[in-house]
Prior knowledge:
This protein is of the alpha/beta class.
Amino acid sequence: xxxxxxPGAYQRSTGTFFTVLQRRAAAHASSAAPPGGRVLDVGCGPxxxxxxxxxxxxxxxxxxxxxxxxxxxxARALLARAGLADRTYVVAxxxxxxxxxxxxxDAVTSTMSFHHWSPxxxxxxxxxxxxxxxxxxxxxxxxxxxxxxxxxxxxxxxxWTCERVLVRGIVLPSVLYRGVRLRRVTP
Length: 187
């Protein structure tokens, strides 16, 4: 079992496995954000994806939120060492009560986190709430994660759609991970 209060150990034990997934998440989120946009990583853990996004797109402001205070502290230190503290912000918070105003972000991403969200439907609606009208969310997790719960939450939110996203491995589609894209339905 993973100890989420020990960010360094968590990062060492998951880093290799999550690298491909985080690269895909960074590509999707960075392409969804306009120049000068704002991106949120929900369940940011030790801050690796926040750092990747900030490096990939120097014009973005990248926020991260995690429920574990030790992860938040670790992520802040990681981002400060990387020289990114001026445009990255990591706070403690719960996915079911995101500490941001409505329509704050152009893109939201989450990797390997939503299987922990409780209640899942409330957390998914929070992601939709903090997205700007033209925003897009990308949620990735293991294949056995509750994707049906995500789809059900989006189905209960008028004007939104949930679409499957192919998660590519090095050469072929990943058999371990799945992803979905949440966005407004265009008339």
